[in-house]
Amino acid sequence: MPSTQVLVVDDEPAIRLVLTEVLRREGLTSTECTNGADAVEMVKKNDYAIVIMDIRMPRMDGLTALKEMRLAKPDTLVVLVTAHGNEKTAVEAVEAGAYDYFTKPFDLNEVRVVVRRAVERLKMQSALKDAKEQSVSRYSFDRI
């Protein structure tokens, strides 16, 4: 599996810096973006495996961006970041198709766990896709 590309979307530079550093230490490549509208366009044009995105941002909030990303690239795993104590929004995010979420202020270990689980899920999806392709070619009518 090639290097996992991650898009970090937050209007706060310090948050983007911390998340980018966590991802780098996990061996992942990341790109930064400051708002939901630009993030949607970037997801449409690039192959990001994971998007980590704040819910509250200018131009387009994270929930709206999530819905547009799910339409454009349904296999992209989107992890949303929500303000502490805003569990209702987090539940709404998961119902809208978010892979997972964590709250601000966030614990770096929690971020690592969420990212590692997302990467493992991507690996399992890739292995399943490979197995399906092999079985289709192995058991196709041409081979009977």
What brief labels describe this structure?
single chain, 144 residues, alpha/beta, 5-stranded parallel sheet, 5 strands
Taken as a percent bin, the fraction of beta residues is 15-25%
Secondary structure category: alpha/beta
Order of helices and strands: EHEHEHEHEH
The biggest beta sheet reads: 5 strands, parallel
Biggest sheet strand order reads: 2-1-3-4-5
Write the layout of secondary structure elements.
Elements: E1 5-9, H1 13-25, E2 29-33, H2 36-45, E3 50-54, H3 62-72, E4 77-83, H4 87-95, E5 100-104, H5 108-138
Parallel strand pairs: 1-2, 1-3, 3-4, 4-5
Helix pairs in contact: 2-3
Question: Could you characterize the architecture of this molecule?
Answer:
With 144 residues, the protein is α/β, with parallel strands linked by helices. Helices cover 51% and strands 19% of the residues. The protein contains five helices and five strands. It has helices at residues 13-25, 36-45, 62-72, 87-95, 108-138, and strands at 5-9, 29-33, 50-54, 77-83, 100-104. Helix 2 (36-45) runs parallel beside helix 3 (62-72).
Summed up:
By secondary structure, the protein is α/β, with parallel strands linked by helices. Helix content is 51%, strand content 19%. The radius of gyration is 17 Å and the shape is globular.
